[in-house]
Amino acid sequence: FPFGRRSPCDIYWHGVSFHDNNIFSGQVNKFPGMTEMVRKITLSRAVRIMQNLFPEEYNFYPRSWILPDEFQLFTAQVQMVKDGDPSWKPTFIVKPDGGCQGDGIYLIKDPSDIRLAGTLQRRPAVVQEYICKPLLIDKLKFDIRLYVLLKSLDPLEIYIAKDGLSRFCTEPYQEPTPKNLHHIFMHLTNYSLNIHSGVDIKKVWSDIISLVIKTVIALTPELKVFYQSDIPAGRPGPTCFQILGFDILLMKNLKPILLEVNANPSMRIEHEQELSPGVFENVPSLVDEEVKVAVIRDTLRLMDPLRKKRENQESLSLGLNIQEYNLVDEAGKEPSQMCRDLGQGLLLMGSSWRECQPGTEAEAPLGGVDHLHENGVGSH
Ligand code: ADP
């Protein structure tokens, strides 16, 4: 509504970030402060706080240092480990803060690398341990983009889309050596594809769900501060929800590693095709369409303000029994399932969301989450 709105809306969809202070009701698709919180430096800092408190629970994020502030610490800690274990030959990845799509990223073997000196002078960055043994498919390194719906911050409600995308490297992977360190098409994943692999899916899913929940928990305290300052309690204002893009790398042993969180994941369903040399055209991308349309559709379903009303009416007539529905999606292709357990407040809906409220038993067990509660993280 570039020229203003005539009447209030149920759902407001902002393109980039939360910015409209003239909304007094309804639901907005961005949380205040989310863009700031998931930048490389702030995310690393938020996860580090939790790593210090719960090192075992937060070992899904590579050890990271913030540059230039922690350059001395980085050098000293690397030296310390090297002194203890001379056979340790680490690789580090340097990522400028606020960069995206691989912009400005490079690999180094040693803190004394001359390129690091340049970065230190130019812009803030994160340097982190490089994961040398990623899982490969057809000899290629890949990472996973998952869509996560943060439906509410308080109480914390998180949904994970069952379908995501994978980006594959185009050059076969080799562990880093001084010779191949510059082959970015081997070390940075960069192409969208669907993934169908045959590993212990249940275990991987449960680890990924834990990773997502723990990452959101790490961001929550500061997100609440942003929320209270932009939407103070007791004054008319909207509630917020947000679709996040989680970039995850699987290690050879299938352990998921968090690479980054994107507050504004691309929802484009077309890609550029080179028709003839130098001539490009946007064409529909079926993979993007299948994954992303489902994510937006189910987000709108879950945020539908009339749903609660309908549910309450239905639950009265159903007498609060566990009910299972088999739905057929609009295209009539795949049956999707909506099941619910009104007693526990667990809701799985549509074909694409995996519910992951801490403490409930969704399809996959939630690993260390209950443990987190015992340690008091749940009260953050
Ligand atoms: P960007 O926002 O520029 O995409 P990312 O943090 O997602 O930055 O990194 C880009 C790519 O680099 C990732 O997709 C992944 O393939 C690779 N990468 C990033 N961090 C690591 C790491 N710690 N270990 C191994 N590979 C990494």
From TrEMBL:
PROSITE patterns: TTL. One of its GO terms (molecular function) is tubulin-glutamic acid ligase activity. Keywords: ATP-binding, Ligase, Nucleotide-binding. It comes from the Eukaryota. The keyword Nucleotide-binding applies. Signal peptide: none annotated. GO terms for biological process: microtubule cytoskeleton organization. Pfam families: TTL. Residues 358-380 are annotated as: Disordered. GO terms for cellular component: ciliary basal body. PANTHER family: TUBULIN POLYGLUTAMYLASE (PTHR12241), TUBULIN POLYGLUTAMYLASE TTLL11 (PTHR12241:SF154). This is Tubulin polyglutamylase TTLL11. It comes from Myotis brandtii (Brandt's bat).
